[in-house]
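User: Fold this; tokens only.

Assistant: Input:
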Amino acid sequence: MAASKRLVLDANILIRAVLGARVRSMIEAHCERVAFFAASESLEEAEKYLGDIAAERGIAAAIWREALARVMAAVQTIPLDGLEPAEVEARARIGVRDPDDWPTLAAALLLECPIWTEDRDFFGSGVPTWTTATVEALPSRTLIAARPMSKLLDKAFARAARLPAGEQDAFAELVLAELDLRAQYLKAAKDPARESEAVAWVEGLKKQN
């Protein structure tokens, strides 16, 4: 497996993989070509919420735990101490939006790859966030580390995070407009690999905004 093909899974993706067939089938379909990672804190969070949901729905603990174990067989867990080198930066980037999410962001920073999530709190962190719809639309060869386009946007996302809440949406529109232009340029350049990457960025960010 090429080391550049990797994604960090947020807790909400782990939960969806257990409760629904869509995400689980996507992980199963790509696990031989893409390395999936999750912070140990994300796994613990998923276990907590799955326990609560199962209790509400009358689902036996053994059932959801077995389903989670099957999902985690395709996901590499990163212990908290392994994320310490990026903790300070991750905490600074996530800010007050959801401080508890710093381990997932730290994992993405260390691995230089996108986060698969449905959580908007990662927007503006300088790391690309892909929704399930975005990941589903991508051929596996484009599930690569966040380069080169994410590096071009790191400063933009970091700047957005520092803006007052009322100005972030307007700034996001400027970023999206720039991405549309980049996608058009890459398409004109007839570079299919980079074109698909650019289009994926555009579509993913549009869904988040």
